[in-house]
Every structure is written in C-alpha cells, then in structure tokens.
Amino acid sequence: MKGTILTIAEHRQNSLREVTFELLALAHELGKAQGLESVCLLLEGEEQSLEGELKGWCERVLVLKAKGLEVFNQEIWQAVILKVMGDRRPFMVLFSHTPWGMDLAPSLSVSSGYPLATDCVSVVIRDGTPLATRQIYGGKLFAEVSLRPSGTYLISLRPGSMRVENPFGLVTQIESLMGIEIPQKTKKVFKEFVDTGAGEIDISQAPFLISIGRGIGEREKLEEIKELAERMGALISCSRPIVDKNWLPKYHQVGTSGKTVKPKVYMALGISGAFQHVAGIKGSPTVIAVNKDKKAPIFRVAQYGVVEDLFKIVGALKETLGG
Ligand SMILES: Cc1cc2nc3c(=O)[nH]c(=O)nc-3n(C[C@H](O)[C@H](O)[C@H](O)COP(=O)(O)OP(=O)(O)OC[C@H]3O[C@@H](n4cnc5c(N)ncnc54)[C@H](O)[C@@H]3O)c2cc1C
Question: What is the pTM of this model?
C-alpha cells in the first residue's frame, strides 16, 4: 500500500483557512518526491461541505461530517485523528502551527507516542526520515532537527512558510469516513467566536508589502505611506515598535513575534533590520530597503538598497505615479 502524508484541514467561520493550502503544498512537494499519497482529513459539521474547495489540491479527502464538528475542539479532533492514524498509519501528519495546531499536535504526540517537530518553516525527507527546519533563539538561528525513527512523524508548520497560488490539478477522491465515534462529553466547550479583527487584512498572503519602521518618526506620517501603498497596490506592514506605539494593529507586524510573510516585493522604509524582523521576510525574493543609515543591517538582506531619507523616496514615487 502506498504511504501517505495526512494533512489536517483547518477551517473557521465556515471557510477553509489559507494555511490548509500551505500544508497541502508541502504535502504535495514531499509526496511527489517520495511517492507518498497526499491525503487531507476534513472534520466538518452536518451542514458544511468544504470538501469541494479541496479538489485538485490533494489525491484524497477523508471527510467526517457530524454534529459538533463545525467548530474546533481539541479533544474531539484528537480522538478522531488517533483513530484515523491507527487505521491508516500515515508516514507523516501535518498540522498548522496556529492555535488549533498548538493545542492539538503536542497532545496527540503524547497520546500516540509519535515524535513531533513544531513551528517548522520547512521540511525535507532524507534517508526516509523527515528533517525539519525551525527557528531557535527568537529567530536568530535556523536549526535542522531530525526525529527519532518512527512509523509516523508529526509536523506543525508555521503559517506563511509555503507559497500557494493555484491547485495542483490533482484528481481528488472524496471518501466519507464511517463508524468513527465522536466524544459527546468534553472538558473543553466552545462558547463563542470573537473576531479580533485579525481578518481585516492578511499580510502573510500579500504579494506586495510596504513596511514601515520607527524611521517614519511620527504617527501623522503614516497617512502619507498609506496613500502611497494604496496607489501602488500594496498592503502596509510594519516592525514591532510601530505596534508597540499603537500606530498600527498587531496583525500588521512582521517578524518572530509577528507574522512570517513572503511577498514578491517587500519594501522596508525606515526599518533597521533587527534579526527578529528579518526572520519574518526570509521567504521574500525581492527586498527593497530605504534607510538613511548606510550601515543599517537591513541592507544585508536587501536586493535593492537606497541610502536616503525615506520621505524623499516616498515623494519621488508619488511624483512618478502622477495625478
Ligand atoms: C523577543 C523579541 C521579539 C521581537 N519580535 C519582533 C518582531 O516580530 N518584529 C520586529 O520588527 N521586531 C521585533 N523585535 C524588536 C527588534 O529587536 C527591533 O527592536 C525592531 O525590529 C526595530 O524596529 P525598527 O527597525 O522599526 O526600529 P529601529 O531599530 O529604531 O530602526 C529605525 C531605522 O530607521 C532609520 N531611519 C530613521 N529615520 C529615517 C528616515 N527619515 N529615512 C530613512 N531611514 C530612517 C534608522 O536609520 C534606523 O535604521 C523583537 C524583540 C524581542 C526582544
């Protein structure tokens, strides 16, 4: 029987989360190289039918539909995944390193005894076992970790680590799971969903980011940059001091304690390039830095650098754009 990589689909408010497709991109990449089938496990409520969105992304979707599965509950998910792992013996199980995955993966690892690597930014398979890359010391170092030999390996992936655009054109079989008992009484109970506003913009998927740092000097200057971003079709992101000062909400922050981003173009304005910041932009192929200090570390990771007052550059760009 062909080995499998099992991806745990994550959904919220009746839609699949982008990170599910990132996991499927990783499963596809590893599966293609190793001859492993990419299988997605979707647990959903009776009224939901999210499986259609997974067509083309994996070879098989295992769907379990039941009352109580419309919202995440770690105890229920764990019971179901343990049963599926027992029946199917996947080579690898992929989780997202989101609050779902953080709640689920370690607990599953303890109860199943399978080794786990959390918060990975990339994974390869070498000599039949996974080698995962994780950031350590607050993002200062990338460490390659191997897992002890096992029948199944558990991996959680940091959101924003894989680029996803279109489905892979795979023929996807939808298989309904039957006869799996769902725990009726759980210690954890879902109360309500409170939107923190984090969904307003998603910098982790933006193709073009204009990112601001402490170098903008004062809050009032933000409007000027916002206007430029709008005209250039970019989203605004920022370094941590901008969030600490309450000039922008937390979901704009890039870095180890913010988001990992992978835009095609990342324009850093008045950002020094501390390692906690640049750890979040490693996936971006084109970094343009504007900083008036030619020794600023951001220039070490930038493909294009401008040593200048950022407002001169912002003004020149606006002038070039005209009208
Ligand atoms: C545990 C921990 C986690 C952290 N996580 C993050 C994180 O996720 N993301 C993050 O960003 N930081 C994070 N930090 C903070 C990080 O260490 C830096 O302090 C921060 O990134 C600096 O932000 P900055 O580059 O905007 O500011 P600064 O380091 O103050 O740099 C401002 C830059 O602007 C330039 N400048 C000033 N005026 C102008 C001008 N007019 N034109 C052009 N250039 C100008 C200056 O030359 C300078 O290089 C973390 C720190 C810790 C301890």
Answer: 0.73
